[in-house]
Fold each of these.
Amino acid sequence: MIERRITTPSTEHARRRRLEGKVVLVTGGGTGIGRAAALAYARDGARVVLAGRRGAEIEAVAHEIAAAEGEALAVVADVSQEDDVRRLITAATKHFGRLDAAFNNAGVLGHVAPIAEQTSVDFDTVIATNLRGVWLSIKYEIEAFVAQGGGGAIVNTSSWLAHGALAGTSIYSASKGALDALIRAVAIEYGSQGIRINNINPGIIDTPMARSGWSDDAAFVPFIEHTPAKRAGQPADAGDVAVWLMTDEARFVTGQNILVDGGYTIAGLR
């Protein structure tokens, strides 16, 4: 695992900085929702650890944070690999001295196709990152929180598909449904130690991953037409909710799966 470090002193800004001095880990931090959240964490005063499989992408985000007088550490890691996750947490705590929060955002869409056209390799690939990778991340993040004496916040990226449906996404949907169930047990297990855990469940967000499945702009039109907001979501629409869930404003929120979908999943006549 290759580590890249970029650090510049942070300065006070006029805006209120709700995460001042906190250390926040963002997996899948190079693009889309992860990138938007990482930049927002930094604006709110956090020192950010960026993790991803593609070093150039996370280093670019680290440079953006540094250019805005923030602090960032970029670590190349694959969350589906337990050794990588362990080394990632070690790198974060060694460099910044502690870990206060984590946004487990890394995920893959996988092969979009009817189930009879999918393979067991397709299944294993998606589950390895979307479920095993998040489970591993939560495990080692909580170990770090407990070793520090407790306290901490975790947010994971789930999906509206955890309780919705879209043809061709059976494996992806299953991975996110399991993630929604997983956090409820964790919230009960560690709530007494001041550790909170929640999911955001984005709707139709215009990200590189979404584009990999539906690259044509016309593919977004039916979703936009059925969304009260009448637009696709932008990465910051979901990323800002992930930031809020780590602040003291969300101190009594845990074990929740929070839809961020512009109202797309509201049942009713269209």
Amino acid sequence: MITNFEDFCLYMYVIVDDIWQQIAPLFSRPGPQPLCSDSEVITIALVSECKGWDKESELLDHWTPYLHLFPHFPERSRFNRRRRNLMFAINLIRQIVLEQLALSGDEYCVIDSLPIPVVAFHLVPSSPGDWRAHGAAFGKVASKKQTIFGYKLHLLVTLEGLILDFELAPANAPDLAVGAELLEQHTHRTVLADKAYSSAEVAAQLFRQNGIRLLALRRDNQKEPLPAALTQLISRTRQIIETVNGQLEEQFCIARNYAHSFWGLVTRLYTKLTAHTLSIYINCLLGKVDVLQIKALAFPNI
């Protein structure tokens, strides 16, 4: 049972280190092993995201009372560099944990997107980052009635709140096109979506090629509306992804960008999404909730 922050760190480290021992050969590098191990660096990064400590200039201040847990805590620039070098390992850890969660086999899912702004409007012309080279663009976010410069993160989420897959796309890319590309990597699922993903042609193609049943809310001007009961069911069920989006924005600060480059942003996204998945995994291990009824992330004592 987790009763304090140190317990949470211990649980996270044990899970990470166990997986790291299996995948370490894939990420081997020359030279002596650092005093602060890769498992420790990954754990520090994941726990920091769970706590919302995503500003590197303040990271050490937050960790100072707990340095006895990581006596060789890396210096700021070294931590940043090592975390970036380990970003693919962090994402692989997320994928391995997904395979261990029975929830990942859920046939029913929800798809949606959330905005990832990277530069404020007035700073775009003078921004030194490589954002445009990696597809960042101006795009409208209808749900928030705003325009951003950056990307949208498209999420495929189970009805229990577990993030199965994701895709980062330019903010001006149509939700339908990106969603179809994301769903093409999956088979035999029923996916619920909002009006932005509504297309009879795309739905037919996904069902024919992948066995994917895409059920999207209809636009007012479409000729064949869904039955009222099905519309209400989709609307009610889609609330789970609103919960997940809220967790990512409020607890994991996913819409707050401190990265100065595209790959810095990708590193942060991998870390945040992995932290979210491992938090659900720890909840399942502790039996805090029924694994078939997980609706939210809850660590009230941390």
Amino acid sequence: PTTAPVSTAMVAPTQVPQYSLDDLIAASAPLMDTNMDGLINLLSSFGVQTLQMLPPAQYAAFATGLRGLGGSI
């Protein structure tokens, strides 16, 4: 008897969006007027005082935090 071949279809890995420091700055700018306390708290939660101090490896997580504050990114 023959057996059917096992499917070896590859599932594409989930892409993590790539953000630049400029992307984060642009999304943060409106929050400086509308939610400065939230922005300061978000920066503090990442252990930094400014976006320039944020490690690039944290950009995607920070972008998620910005969206939670109402940022558009």
Amino acid sequence: MENILEITLPIHTVSEANISEHWTKKKKRHDIQKKAIWIYFKKEKPEISLPCRIKLTRIGKRKLDDDNLPVSMKWIRDEISSCLIPGKLPGRADDDKRISFCYDQKIGKEYGINIIFYCALQ
């Protein structure tokens, strides 16, 4: 597989498993995360072929536990999958076997998400 696209977006993620907050605050954060991904796909219209592997790297002021990292990316993963496979119910496109995800994280001054798409050459 070849790295065909790499982007970094200023999206703030948190450990959803370890945070206790009002549902409206969570929903607002989730909506912002999903909208940032959706806007990128609508504006740039990247040509991503399936199957592909997607590496999501969280950039934050501190690292999360390895079990909290994937949970912090749930809404980003769902929206990327929905953009790649439109027409499925919300949150269901990421169960497609042609898409796989891996996760990483690094320390940075600003919060963000780095996304790398690895796809087979056609």
